[in-house]
Amino acid sequence: MQTALQTQRTALQQSGIATRQLADAQRTLKARTAEANTHLATQQQRLEQQAVQQKRLTNARSR
What we know:
Blueprint: H1 2-14, H2 22-62
């Protein structure tokens, strides 16, 4: 089992992937994904608010 792990680690390193940094990279990716999701949720709320306001303006103009 240890040999298989070392073989995989060697293959990843030859591909340019440092296995000791995978956990750090995963944490960074998780944080960036969460941040992007927060920005997307904020943007969605703003779009919904704009749609409501646009609907109000359209209704006011049609009266």
